[in-house]
Protein: Lipoprotein
Amino acid sequence: MKKIILIFAVILTFFGCEKNDDNNNETLPPATQTGAGTFACYVNGKAFIDKSGGYFNCFYQLVNGEYYFGISGLDDNHSIFRAVALATNASEITNDQQYELSCNEPNNHYGEVAFTRQLLDATTCNSSFGTMTITKLDFDNNIVSGTFEFDVIHPNSGEIIQIRDGRFDTLFTQ
Structure:
């Protein structure tokens, strides 16, 4: 009987312990359209969540007759990289529209990541996959919400890093 209890205790200990490396078991915030102040995605299956308290450096501005959009999220505790950014270069965004992410060139939309405190370490320009969908663009309340997913290539290892199930919902400046 003692052997059965010991085996049962070992099994419970083995299956009851979870390794919680780098937000691996963390759930992303819901995809909302209320200006909730969220930015999150999965990076190679690990949660990347900006927990800075809500409202990011997010803008959608008309400059010299062209529109520019930008948003970025930070997660200093993530093991792969610390920042994810989405932006446009001289290109409008609208509600319920999906955009292909490519290079930071006029009339394009793009994604970037930073592995360290330096910016622009990897971009969708070197990848063949990436989309951003604007699900809400509300000029009366300055709310922008959307979803995204893209790949980037690690500049040193050449590894393809997958950003999936991304979402943002925040206020923007004009």
In short: Residues 1-23 have pLDDT under 50 and may be disordered. Residues 2-171 form one domain. The first strand starts at residue 38 and ends at 43. The chain has one domain: 2-171.
